[in-house]
Design goal:
The radius of gyration is 16 Å and the shape is globular. Strands 2-1-6-7-5-4-3 form a seven-stranded antiparallel sheet, sandwiched between helices. Helix content is 31%, strand content 21%. With 159 residues, the chain is an alpha+beta fold. The protein starts with a strand and ends in a 7-residue tail after the last strand. It has three helices and seven strands. The longest helix has 21 residues, at 101-121.
């Protein structure tokens, strides 16, 4: 489980954005539910759940925050929190191991653009938790899953 924290509001002890990697001998419950839902959708439709959802978002365009050539930041229609954003590759990828140099370059542009937009929202250094969701690294195959980043900002207003 790879994540980054930024800001006192998320309980960090370091005052700059910093990432952490946790290695578990099990799949955490939220990720297990995502994997199970993705697998069920794949069995029922033959399609990736995230690819299908992302195509709806790209066609609708109302919740697109920022779009690059290869990555897109958007508010999922099922967002649970104010200012929650997903960032995902437009093509089906299950993990960061699939990235090309062009993917990394576009991800950097979209990620930077998203973080600038967050900071501009209330004209302050916007705190967040960014969790990277990718296929588990247990050597099993997960063709039905889709790599994505989830941003959970704790702020609801500037104060």
């Amino acid at each position: 489980m790879i994540f980054e924290n930024k800001g006192d509001a998320v309980g960090v002890t370091l005052h700059h954005p910093h990432g952490q990697i946790y290695a578990f001998p099990f799949i955490p419950p939220v990720l297990a539910r995502e994997l199970n839902a993705s697998q069920r959708h794949f069995k029922d439709s033959g399609h990736c759940l995230f690819c299908d959802s992302l195509q709806v978002e790209l066609a609708d365009r109302r919740r697109i925050v920022l779009e690059g050539e290869r990555f897109v930041a958007y508010i999922p229609f099922f967002a649970r929190y104010p200012y929650e954003v997903y960032l995902a590759p437009k093509t089906h990828q299950v993990s960061m191991a699939e990235w090309t140099a062009a993917d990394v370059a576009d991800l950097a542009l979209v990620l930077k653009g998203l973080l600038v937009k967050y900071d501009a929202l209330f004209n302050l250094s916007f705190p967040y938790i960014m969790a990277i969701h990718q296929a588990p690294t247990d050597e099993a195959e997960y063709p039905y899953y889709h790599l994505h980043f989830e941003f959970y900002p704790p702020l609801r207003s500037s104060d």
